[in-house]
């Protein structure tokens, strides 16, 4: 971000600001005025229209802030929920943390929405964007990178030179401010810090640290924009600064709050990965070269830890998730894990002998001890699903195999009690909002999962005219989703609509395998029919690159998996058809899901109706939400899964979607495009 964005206005220049807490009626009145015909936004946003849903949501947020209450609010697409929570938050005064689920929304809030609301309100508020430490240049690691010169490519060397110059002139140190070096360039991992390798107050560059500077600006700002991962990492690990922000905070707002259960589960658990061990080995080797050149045993131990880490990963032949028992049934796993633990202990012992020679070696020693303890805790953790003394399932142990690394995880089966404890204590307002939190306007699933049983809830439908703007089409005579040839049947059923819409389509899949198979079939069909629609698939470039190309073509067909089910906004005619291959039930062999299902069933509850189905509905609502993004959009949502009609729970699913006009007639679906 441009450094100029970090600014504050003197409060004395705006008499009577903020509205005092004793003037709650004035707050509500002012909020409602802001969303009336006389709104200051009317002259600033050409598309602004007074919307009852937006006004009512803003009032509910204002009341929650007034009462230091918890509010869970679903607002359909087009409600304008961002303004609906920003206006009362800024009017009420006090310190506000806004946490988002995606980088795109984080940037939009900071660069566009917050400045617009602040200007409309003439509000004397300062705003800061706080990111994770990996986004900021680290002086210490930058100097190490320059001195050791261990780079794999000439491009790394060129990028390093640019970062060195950037570090001399930037105020923020934010890597996004250096456009000449891509944010995913390998060099960044060498010149930024992690929670593990940060030296903290022992760092010789402590006073000039960009991370500390960003934290200070966040501490001084009235509104701080973070993301969910950062928020939970901070609250649990006391690492990045949000934990320091919370005590002084009056209001916390979670946008895209449907992502919180997954994010919170990640951070309320424990994990250790071979990537962390490889980083430790690399950092210890660099520190040895710099501060312990005469101790030859240290680089050798680093090499041995690297080899043991890679050997453990190579035990597994394919990527994916599996429970701890699944790994322990592989005969090579336990010996490889034991060797790794031994090499880690050996490195820790050698680092202890050299720790006093530099802050970096001391840090590596402490990291090695921590990682060794985490590895031991996971290894002796018992069965996959451990139980407490009261007999209730507490955690599940499992592994995730990535292309180059392996992660050992311990995840709580329920985060409700942990999260409820985190948000209790100091009185403040907590706002949870998204376009997808409820099932048929019922929030019980979300409230139970997040431990928000006493929260206020509210739901506002989209202001868009779905019966006129959109059609829900469920084709007839498709086979069962788990049958052989299902993907072929989906593509053949979709082709007439793709032709009728002249491309302009998203095809969303629940698995990468089905997505790739559908792409191959479509390529062949387009060639045989001489269809000239540009065909694109997830993975050809970044999501933003693909979306830019999709919009520019105007008649493209894009196939995507999970990355395109949410956080994607394509307005206008470029996207007029969204095709979903299956209802997005999570894979039943996922170890965390399997353990949670088993626990619910053990309690005599219906895991499918209480947990699996609500999660699938919320995910489906996200995918369906890609179609109508504007009051002038028109299009067809095609859901191919016959369970939507044939199963007893299907009605509950489609009744949770916006009020589309519905059909099973292909001719009517095709005719929707010719009629437009």
Outline of the structure:
The protein has 676 residues and is α/β, with parallel strands linked by helices.
The proportion of residues in beta strands is: 5-15%
pLDDT < 50 runs, ≥5 residues? 1-23, 387-393
| Beta-strand segment tally | 19
Radius of gyration: 27 Å
**If strands are numbered along the chain, what order do they take across the biggest sheet?**
3-4-2-5-11-1-12
What does the average pLDDT come to? 89
Specify the structural class. alpha/beta
Tally of alpha and pi helices: 27
For the largest beta-sheet, the strand count, sense and barrel status come to: 7 strands, parallel
Helix content: 40-55%
Sum up the overall morphology in one term: globular
Separation, N- and C-terminal Cα atoms: 42 Å
Describe the structure.
It is built from 27 helices and 19 strands. It is α/β, with parallel strands linked by helices and 676 residues long. Strands 3-4-2-5-11-1-12 form a seven-stranded parallel sheet, sandwiched between helices. Helix 22 links the parallel strand 15 (535-537) and strand 16. The longest helix is centred in the middle third of the chain and has 22 residues, at 333-354. The two termini are 42 Å apart.
List the topology elements.
Elements: H1 24-34, H2 52-67, E1 70-75, H3 81-92, E2 96-100, H4 103-121, E3 127-129, H5 139-148, H6 154-169, H7 188-191, H8 210-220, E4 223-227, H9 228-237, H10 242-245, E5 251-254, H11 260-268, E6 270-273, H12 274-291, H13 297-314, E7 320-323, H14 324-328, H15 333-354, H16 359-379, E8 385-387, E9 393-401, E10 406-412, H17 416-423, E11 429-434, H18 444-450, E12 456-460, H19 466-469, E13 470-473, H20 486-500, E14 505-508, H21 512-529, E15 535-537, H22 543-553, E16 557-560, E17 577-580, H23 591-602, H24 607-624, E18 635-639, H25 643-646, H26 650-654, E19 661-663, H27 666-675
Parallel strand pairs: 1-11, 1-12, 2-4, 2-5, 3-4, 5-11, 13-18, 13-19, 14-16, 14-17, 15-16, 17-18
Antiparallel strand pairs: 6-10, 7-9, 8-9, 9-10
């Amino acid at each position: 971000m441009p450094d100029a964005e970090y600014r504050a206005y003197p409060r004395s220049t705006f008499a009577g600001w903020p509205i005092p807490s004793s003037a709650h009626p004035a707050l509500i009145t002012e909020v409602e005025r802001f969303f009336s015909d006389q709104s200051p936004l009317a002259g600033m946003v050409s598309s602004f229209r007074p919307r009852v849903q937006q006004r009512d949501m803003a009032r509910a947020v204002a009341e929650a802030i007034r009462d230091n209450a918890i509010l869970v609010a679903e607002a359909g697409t087009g409600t304008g929920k961002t303004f609906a929570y920003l206006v009362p938050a800024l009017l009420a005064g006090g310190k506000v943390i806004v946490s988002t689920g995606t980088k795109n929304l984080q940037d939009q809030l900071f660069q566009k929405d917050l400045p617009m609301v602040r200007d409309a309100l003439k509000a004397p508020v300062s705003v800061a964007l706080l990111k994770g430490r990996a986004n900021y240049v680290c002086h210490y690691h930058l100097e190490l990178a320059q001195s050791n010169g261990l780079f794999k490519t000439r491009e790394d060397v060129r990028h390093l030179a640019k970062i060195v110059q950037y570090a001399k002139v930037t105020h923020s140190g934010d890597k996004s401010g250096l456009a000449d070096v891509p944010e995913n360039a390998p060099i960044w991992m060498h010149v930024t810090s992690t929670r593990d390798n940060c030296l903290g107050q022992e760092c010789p560059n402590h006073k000039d640290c960009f991370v500390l500077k960003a934290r200070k600006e966040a501490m001084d700002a009235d509104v701080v924009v973070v993301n969910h991962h950062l928020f939970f990492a901070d609250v649990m690990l006391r690492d990045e600064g949000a934990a320091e922000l919370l005590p002084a905070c009056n209001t916390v707002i979670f946008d895209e709050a449907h992502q919180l259960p997954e994010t919170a589960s990640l951070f309320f658990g424990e994990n250790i990965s071979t990537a962390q061990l490889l980083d430790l080995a690399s950092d210890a080797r660099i520190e040895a070269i710099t501060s312990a050149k005469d101790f030859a045993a240290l680089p050798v131990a680093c090499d041995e830890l690297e080899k043991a880490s890679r050997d453990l990963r190579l035990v597994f032949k394919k990527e994916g998730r599996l429970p701890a028992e699944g790994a322990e049934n592989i005969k090579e796993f336990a010996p490889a894990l034991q060797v790794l633990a031994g090499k880690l202990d050996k490195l820790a012992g050698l680092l202890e002998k050299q720790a006093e020679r530099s802050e970096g070696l001391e840090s590596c020693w402490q990291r090695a001890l921590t990682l060794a303890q985490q590895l031991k805790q996971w290894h002796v953790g018992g069965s996959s699903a451990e139980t407490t003394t009261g007999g209730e399932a507490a955690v599940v142990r499992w592994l995730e195999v990535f292309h180059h690394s392996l992660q050992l995880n311990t995840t709580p089966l329920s985060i409700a009690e942990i999260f409820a404890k985190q948000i209790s204590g100091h009185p403040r307002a907590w706002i949870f909002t998204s376009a997808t939190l409820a099932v048929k306007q019922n929030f019980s699933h979300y409230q139970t999962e997040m431990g928000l049983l006493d929260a206020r809830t509210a739901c506002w439908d989209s202001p868009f005219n779905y019966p006129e703007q959109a059609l829900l089409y469920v084709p007839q005579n498709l086979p069962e989703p788990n049958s052989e040839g299902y993907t072929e049947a989906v593509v053949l059923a979709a082709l007439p609509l793709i032709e009728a819409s002249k491309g302009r389509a998203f095809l969303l899949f629940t698995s990468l395998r089905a997505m790739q198979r559908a792409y191959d079939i479509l390529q062949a069909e387009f060639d045989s029919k001489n269809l000239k629609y540009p065909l694109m698939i997830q993975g050809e470039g970044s999501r933003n690159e693909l979306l830019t190309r999709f919009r520019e073509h105007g008649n493209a067909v894009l196939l995507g998996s999970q990355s395109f089910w949410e956080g994607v906004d394509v307005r206008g005619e470029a996207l007029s058809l969204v095709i979903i291959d299956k209802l997005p039930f999570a894979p039943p062999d996922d170890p965390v899901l399997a353990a949670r299902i088993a626990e619910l069933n053990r309690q005599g509850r219906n895991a499918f109706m209480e947990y699996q189905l609500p999660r699938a509905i919320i995910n489906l609502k996200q995918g369906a939400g890609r179609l109508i993004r504007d009051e002038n959009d028109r299009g067809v949502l095609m859901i191919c899964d016959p369970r939507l009609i044939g199963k007893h729970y299907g009605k509950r699913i489609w009744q949770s979607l916006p009020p589309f006009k519905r059909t099973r007639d292909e001719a009517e679906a095709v005719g929707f495009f010719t009629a437009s």
